[in-house]
Every structure is written in C-alpha cells, then in structure tokens.
Amino acid sequence: MGEGLSDQSLADYAGVSAVAIEGVTKRFGDVVAVDNINLDIADGEFFALLGPSGCGKTTTLRMIAGLEFPTSGSLRIFGDEVGTLPPDKRPVNTVFQNYALFPHMNVLDNVSFGLRMKGVEKKSAATQAREMIELVRLDGMEKRKPSQLSGGQQQRVALARALVNKPKVLLLDEPLGALDLKLRQDMQHELKSLQRELGVSFVFVTHDQEEALTMSDRIAVMHDGKLLQVGTAEELYDQPVNRFVADFVGQTNLIDATVIDDEMIALANGTKIKAPNPYPGGTKVAMSLRPESISIGAPEDVPEEFRPTSLHGVVQEMNYLGHSHVYTVGVDWMPLEVRTNATPTSIKYEPGTEVAIWWDRRSDWVVPDEGYSS
Amino acid sequence: MTAVVDKPTEQARSATPEFEAANERQKRRRGFLLALPAYAYLVLFFFIPLGIVVAYSFATRTRNGSTSLSGWNLEAYRKLGEPIVSDILVRSLLLAVITTVICLIVAYPFSYFLATRSPAVRNLMLVFVMIPFWSNFLVRNYAWRVLLGNDGPASQLTQAVGMGETNILFTQTAVVLGLVYGFLPFMILPMYAAIERMDWSLIEASRDLGASGFQTFRNVALPLSMPGVIAGSILVFIPSLGAYVTPEILGGGKTTLLGSYIVVQFLTARNWPVGASVSTVLMLVMLLAALAYFRAGGRTL
Ligand SMILES: Nc1ncnc2c1ncn2[C@@H]1O[C@H](COP(=O)(O)OP(=O)(O)O)[C@@H](O)[C@H]1O
Ligand SMILES: [Mg+2]
Fold it and tell me: What's the CA-to-centroid distance between A27 and ligand 2, angstroms?
C-alpha cells in the first residue's frame, strides 16, 4: 500500500464505501467488457458479482485490483481515487481463479511473499505467515510445494497468501470453481465465517447463483458488461428488475404477458390475471412465478380467494426429488414447473391428470421483457 | 462400469498387471530397434573419434613430428600448466564468460519483450532473429571485418558524432563483438521459450501482493525463466570457448585463443598429443557446464 493510501486518509474517510465505482467502462478494442457501471461496496460487506461467463465480472474485479485500468469512469477505494494506481500500491489483494501460487516456492514462502516484499523482516514475516497458515488449517504443510497439494489445499494457500497482507478489501475470482461439490460447500461456510471474523470486505465473483445467494450480504447481477441489479438475496429473488435477473437468480416460470392496467395483466393466451404492476397499459412484460409458490390441486378445489390467480392444465411429468415433487403442468400454451413439498400425506398427481394451479397474488412478480439477449 | 466387472471384456483383461508388463517390454524392444541406427551412428561417428582424441592425449610426440602410441604418459597434460598454454586457457575462458554475460544482458529484455507481443509480431521478430542463419557464418564474420575496419561504417559513425575514429578491429573487443553477434540467437531462443511458457498470472499475483516491478522480476520472473537462462548460457558459452573462425578473422590471430591453439597444434606444430589434451580439457569443461545445467533442473536444450 505505502504511497497508495495512507492510514491518515483512511481515517478521514471513515464510513465511506470500501469500493466506489462510478460510471466505469472498460473496452478491449471493440469489445465493451464493462459498460458504464456504478457500484458501492460497504466496508465489511460480503459482496458477490454474479453473472454468466463473459459478462465482465473478472474485468470488474481486475480493475479494483489494478490489474486492468478503466477506459473511463472513476474508481475509489476508501475514498481515494485509484484510477491508474498499480496493483502493489492498493490496499486490496486477490485470490486468483487458478490460484496463481508460485510453483518454485513452498507454502510458507508463498504466504510470506507479500510481507517480505513490503520489507517485513524475515522472522516476523514467517511468524505472521504461520499464523495465517494455521487460520486456514494448513499447519504442517509449510514446506510443501504447491504441486504437492490438493485443489482445496491450494485454494487455502491462495487465501492465506492474500489475507496475510491484511487487505482492506479481498477480491476473489471464482475461488471455488475448481472444487468438487462437497468441498465447495465446506469452503463456502469457511469463507463466510472467515470474512465475519476478519470484518474485511470480500468481493466474490461467481457464476453460480446458489453460491451467491447463500454467501453474500449483497449481490450485483451482471449481464453483457452491464450491471442489472444490486441487492440482497431476498431482493433479487423476490423482486428481480427484469426478465434476465428473474431467470438467472433461482428457478422460475416466466410467462409472457401484456399489461392491461395497474391491477391486471393478460397472459399470452388471453387469460386475465390479477397482478399489480407499475407499467403503462400495453407494455410487454413477463410474469415470474417461482415453482415453489405455486399450489396444485383438483380443478374444483381452487380456494375462492385464489380464483383470480389460477390456471387450468394437465400434468405432463412428475419427478420425485425426495424432499419435493416437481410437476410439469401444461397450461395449454406453455409448460410450467410446480414444486410441492413431498410428505407422506401429500397427494400425487400422475401424468395425464387434469389439475388446477394457483398462487398467492403477492408471489407473482411482473418484470419488463428486457435485459435478456442470451 | 459395473457391467464390465461381472462380464470381463477385452479392455478389462488387458488391464491386468502381467499384460501391462508384457506390453511394456514389447514397447521397449520396439523402441530399441527403432533407435538402433541412431545408436550405431553415435558409436561410429561420435564415441570412436572421441576415444581416439582422448587416447592421443596420452601419447608421445616423436622427434620427427609423428605420434607414437606406445608408452602412455601425461606429458601433454603437463604442458597445459606452462604459462603460454594456461594463459590461453584463462583468456579463452574470460572471453567466453564476457560473451555469455553480454548475451544474457542483451537477450533477457529482448526475450521478455518478444514474449509479451501478439503472436503475429512475435513470429515476425523471431524470423528477424534467425535471418543471420540464412547466410554463411564465415561470410558474416568477414562482413564484420568490413564494418569495423579502418574508415569502415563503424568508424565513420563515431567520427560523425564526434567521438573520433574507432580502431577496434583485431582486438579482443572485436572478437567479443563478433562472438556476441554470432551466438546471440542461441541465447534468445531458449530464453524466449522459457519466458513465453511462464504463467502470466504469477506476475500479476506478485504485483497484487505488493511486489514492485523489479521485485517481481527478481523473485518470480527470473527464477521461473531460469531453465531458459541456463540453457541459453550454455549454448553461448560452449561455442564461445572453442570458437575458431571469429577470433581468427576479427582478432587477426593476434590474441590466440583455445580454438586457434588446437588448430595450430594439430596442423602447424604437429604436436597431436598436446592438441588432443587441450581438446579433452575443453570437452570436460563443456561436460561440466552441461551437467550443471541438468542439475539446475532444466530440460530445454
Ligand atoms: N484482455 C482482454 N482482451 C480482450 N478481451 C477481453 C480481455 N479480457 C476480457 N475480455 C472480454 O471481455 C468480456 C468480459 O470478460 P470477463 O470479465 O473475463 O468475463 P467473466 O469473468 O464474467 O466471465 C469477454 O467478452 C471477454 O472476451
Ligand atoms: Mg471470469
């Protein structure tokens, strides 16, 4: 950090965003990798950058790290403009996607590298490195080379190597991408508790929406270099701003519709459904309906209050997932997915059965039919 | 997979240890047969002449200038301790080291630059590096003689910028210049290969962890490109040490080096045992250099 950001300036800006991105664009020749994004990441926050491959997550992270410089816009870390400051002058560290451990150094030398480069005396650097190695539960592995470690262990070394420098912000680029499912889930918990313990902002890049939802305080959804929505897991899940976010975050049924007025919409087959919305009449929209918010039953069993939000259909498929039944119900113009809890007493609907499906008015969500080009 | 277990198939049977061992043996035998011509060639044209050279180095020079193979002795090796010969040895070593160091200093930044260009630029520049090989080594050395000669282009240039005449032809400086020119590509190519192979994210990781550009070079880039550095150094050092053409043409025969000395011993002085003993020592030095390289873990010659 040194010349980059003084402790004095950090104190002056107490309470400002850890990372503030304003109108940042990054072009590679003709490719607009990041398109005019605005983002504020708070101190101590677990923040996820979520989006499909190629949407600009890594580029955004690299600009915060200083490994890439914005084409335009302003980027501040704890209030200080870092624009074209080189990476070694920024109070941030990165856990790289492929870990990027130094193959010619053992674990201890890898972890103490940052301290040594800042001129910390050898013994003291080794002591701090050992503490960090212990924190990520790799004690006893100090003398091993990265090639002698498993993927999960290499991941921990990368983590320790970054954290030993006491960064103000830790950047992680799909750190769990290369691990198998079980290890991945363990590491998710570990990362989360590590972050709580250290109180440092984590900026976590992932294309796995489930991972983002379970780990993060807030999530930014990116698509085609644009930032579509920033919010908590609940906000993204329950109130997606557009069709893309609704589809990408969690599973959902997206039903094409047209706005009639601020209370009603017409589904693609003409069925009128009560769905409060802020859009002018005639707007093309999609209604997002989560599979678990839909109830299924015999056509005559639809409760009175759910009549305005019900449809008739035929069961096309039923899958038993242990904890739930997943039905594909054909409602004459499209199949919808319905998920019900599977209990010993729950009624099963075999394929071919005529059924009704209904939902609570508060659980549908109307999104503009934009932000979708994949 | 489970189906394979209870009903053994062809693949399942072929995976038994015995089968694999037999397979391995057969492969090795086939490999040996294929390599036989190469082995024969090596024995015939490399090991036998080498043996003859070593044998001659222990022989005696008769008074009329022929070589007597009876009566082995170390006379030829004793001669190496005499000031005339040891001076030549030291001077040759020194020039070879200087040449290697200059090549290192010139080639590293260039290779680094090369490895960081786009593939198209890279290939074009590699062609430029190799263009000199398209013409004869001897011709190129004579070209340098013209360049460095009295009132040649080099001299005219230094005069034009007011630095006076250059009179370096037939000096050790001219020899080093010619050797560097001749062997630089042998330094650049393995170095470039090593740097190009390096994982670039390691450089970024180093900067990210707070290392300056120079610290990154010193602690990450250089150690990782070391195999290329060592391979290049050996490829330059060995031919520099035994160089004959360049010292003869650009050194004007004034400062005799090992290569010239060996030639003189064989052709003019007709002292084959001494020529052979110097050659043997030279080969030993080269062998040690090669061993040092393999010890350092390099594999890219
Ligand atoms: N160095 C680069 N040169 C050219 N294009 C790049 C470079 N880095 C990224 N891109 C392009 O920018 C876009 C975003 O890439 P990236 O940020 O890596 O996406 P993500 O991490 O979300 O998968 C992609 O279209 C990618 O091809
Ligand atoms: Mg990426």
Answer: 16
What is the number of the ligand 1 atom nearest to the C-alpha of A34? 14
DSSP state of B253: T
- Contact (CB, 8 A) for B108 and B145: no
**Helices B83-115/B272-295 angle, 10° precision:** 40
A63: exposed, middle or buried (Cβ count in 10 Å: 0-12, 13-18, 19+) = buried
Chain-centre distance of CA A98, in angstroms? 19
Q: In whole angstroms, give the CA distance from residue A195 to residue A18.
A: 15
Tokens representing B223 are 């150690």
Query: Each residue's pLDDT tens digit in chain B (301 positions)?
Result: 444 444 444 454 555 777 778 888 888 888 888 888 898 998 889 999 999 999 999 988 887 778 888 778 888 898 888 898 889 989 999 999 999 999 999 999 999 999 989 999 999 999 999 888 888 889 999 999 888 888 788 888 888 888 877 788 888 899 999 999 999 999 999 999 999 999 999 999 999 999 999 999 999 999 999 889 988 998 999 899 989 999 999 988 777 888 989 998 888 888 899 999 999 998 898 888 888 777 765 544 4
Q: Which of residues 164-223 of A touch B (CB under 8 A)?
A: 165
Element holding A286 (H helix, E strand) = strand A284-289
* Spatial CA neighbour of A203 closest among A167, A239, A243, A237: A167
Model confidence, pTM: 0.80
Cα torsion angle, B63, B65, B70, B75, sign: positive
With CB atoms and an 8 Å threshold, state whether A94 touches B211.
Answer: no
Distance CA A321, CA A346 (A): 14
At A54-76, the pLDDT tens digits run 999 999 999 999 999 999 999 99
**Inter-axis angle of helices B48-57 and B272-295, nearest 10:** 120
Nearest-Å Rg of the Cα atoms of chain B is 26
Q: Which residues pair with A264 in a beta bridge?
A: A274
CB-defined site of ligand 1, < 6 Å: A 28, 31, 33, 51, 53-59
- For ligand 1, the distance from its centroid to the CA atom of residue A171, given in whole angstroms, is 17
- Report the nearest atom of ligand 1 relative to the CA of A55: 22
Q: Hey, what are A188's tokens?
A: 């998710």
HSE, CB side, 13 Å, CA atoms: give it for residue A335. Answer: 9
The partner residue sitting opposite A67, judged by closest CB among B204, B210, B212, is: B204
Contact B210 A118 (CB under 8 A): yes
Nearest CA in chain B to A166: B209
Contact between A171 and A47 under an 8 Å Cβ cutoff? The reply is no
